[in-house]
TrEMBL record, chain A:
Keywords noted in UniProt: Cell inner membrane, Cell membrane, Electron transport, Heme, Iron, Membrane, Metal-binding, Transmembrane, Transmembrane helix, Transport, Tricarboxylic acid cycle
Main location as per UniProt: membrane
Domain of life: Bacteria
Compartments where located: Cell inner membrane
GO biological process: cytochrome complex assembly; tricarboxylic acid cycle
Database matches in Pfam families: Sdh_cyt
Cofactor(s) annotated in UniProt: heme
Gene: sdhD
Residues where heme binds: 71
Protein name, per record: Succinate dehydrogenase hydrophobic membrane anchor subunit
Natural source organism: Marinomonas profundi
Function: Membrane-anchoring subunit of succinate dehydrogenase (SDH).
Membrane topology category: Multi-pass membrane protein
GO molecular function, one term: electron transfer activity
UniProtKB/TrEMBL annotation, chain B:
Catalytic reaction annotation: a quinone + succinate = fumarate + a quinol
Protein name: Succinate dehydrogenase iron-sulfur subunit
Species per Swiss-Prot/TrEMBL record: Marinomonas sp. (strain MWYL1)
Keyword terms of this UniProt record: 2Fe-2S, 3Fe-4S, 4Fe-4S, Electron transport, Iron, Iron-sulfur, Metal-binding, Oxidoreductase, Transport, Tricarboxylic acid cycle
A Pfam family hit: Fer4_17
GO molecular function: 2 iron, 2 sulfur cluster binding; 3 iron, 4 sulfur cluster binding; 4 iron, 4 sulfur cluster binding; electron transfer activity; metal ion binding; succinate dehydrogenase (quinone) activity
Domain of life: Bacteria
EC top class, as a word: oxidoreductase
EC number(s) stated in the UniProt entry for this protein: 1.3.5.1
InterPro entries associated with the record: 2Fe-2S_ferredoxin-like_sf (IPR036010), 4Fe4S_Fe-S-bd (IPR017896), 4Fe4S_Fe_S_CS (IPR017900), Beta-grasp_dom_sf (IPR012675), Helical_ferredxn (IPR009051), SDH/FRD_Iron-Sulfur (IPR050573), Succ_DH/fum_Rdtase_Fe-S (IPR004489), Succ_DH/fum_Rdtase_N (IPR025192)
Functional note: Two distinct, membrane-bound, FAD-containing enzymes are responsible for the catalysis of fumarate and succinate interconversion; the fumarate reductase is used in anaerobic growth, and the succinate dehydrogenase is used in aerobic growth.
Co-factor requirement: [4Fe-4S] cluster; [3Fe-4S] cluster; [2Fe-2S] cluster
Pathway: Carbohydrate metabolism; tricarboxylic acid cycle; fumarate from succinate (bacterial route): step 1/1
Amino acid sequence: MVTQITSFGRSGLYDWMMQRVSAVVLSLYTVFIIGYLLLNPDLTYDQWSALFEATWMRIFSLMVLLSIGMHSWIGLWSISTDYIKATGARFFFQSLCGLVMFIYIVWGVQVLWGL
Amino acid sequence: MLVSIYRYNPEKDDAPYMQDYEIELPAGKDLMVLDVLNLLKAQDPSISYRRSCREGVCGSDGMNMSGKNGLACITPVSEAVKKGKLVLRPLPGLPVVRDLVVDMGQFYKQYEKIRPYLLNDTPAPAIERLQSPEEREKLDGLYECILCACCSTACPSFWWNPDKFVGPSGLLQAYRFLADSRDTATQERLSDLDDPFSVFRCHGIMNCVNVCPKGLNPTKAIGNIRTMLLQRAT
C-alpha cells in the first residue's frame, strides 16, 4: 500500500468518493443557475440580490464553494503527483493550490454574506 | 513495404534512432508483423526482439506497432500498416534494454505486489477446493491474461507512476483473486489497494481495453474493485 499525506482524505476511496459527490453538487448548481437565468430573461438586480439573500441559496452556494475546493484539490493533487517529480516543487505547488483554495472559500463567504 | 524500426544498443549508441528497411512481401498473403520481423532479422541479424510461441499465447512479443500496442505474432501487417509504412517501437514507458526489448521489471513488481496466488487459511481438503460452475464463471475474462504488458504500457497513469499505480494488468489479476471463491484474504487484499495510487490512479480512459490482444476488460475489473471497496467502507 502506498501512503500519501498530502492527498485530500489520505485514502484513495475517500478522495474518489468526495470527487464524485462534489461533482454532483457542482452539476446541480450549474443546472439550477442556467435554469434560473433561462426562466428569468428580464432579470433585475433586485431579483438577483433577493435570490442570494435567501438562506437556502447561501447554504447551496457555500456547499458549491466547498465542493469546488475539494474537487479542485483532489484533481490538482493528482496532476501534481503525475507531472511534478521533484518533491520540493511538488510540495510548493500543492501548498500554493491549498492557499488559493482557502482564499477563494473565505472570500466567497464574505461575498455571499456581504461581510 | 517500408518498415521503420526503433534501434538502440546501449553498448554502441549514444541515443536511440529509427532505422528504415525496405522489404518485399510475398504477394497474396497477409503476414503477421512477427513474420516481417523474422524476414528482416535474416537481412540484419542485429535487430533484437523477444518472441516465443508465435501464436499469441506466451505474450513475449508485445510491442508498439504504428502507435498501437499489441502482439506482433497475431497482428496482421494489413492492420498495423499506416500510409504504406510499418513503424515498430518498444512498449512505451518501460526502460529499453535493446531495440524492441524492454525491461519488464517494474511491470512484474506490480504484479507481485497484488499477491497473484490463492491465499486460504482454512485447512486444505483431502483432494481439492471445489467451486460451483457459477463461482468458476466469475473468473472468466480475468484468468486469460498472459501478462504481455500491452495494456499497462498503454496507460498514461502507469507511465507517470509505474512504482505506485498497479496498472491495468495487475489490477485485472487483483480482481481475479478477489472474485475467487477459494480465496479467503479478500479483506487484506482490499486494504492493500485502498490508497490514492494503487487503484484510484485509474481515470477510466480505457486504453487498456483498446489494446488488449486477448480482448479482456481491465477497466471493468477496476470498476468492480472500486465497488468492493465502496461496499466495504459504507
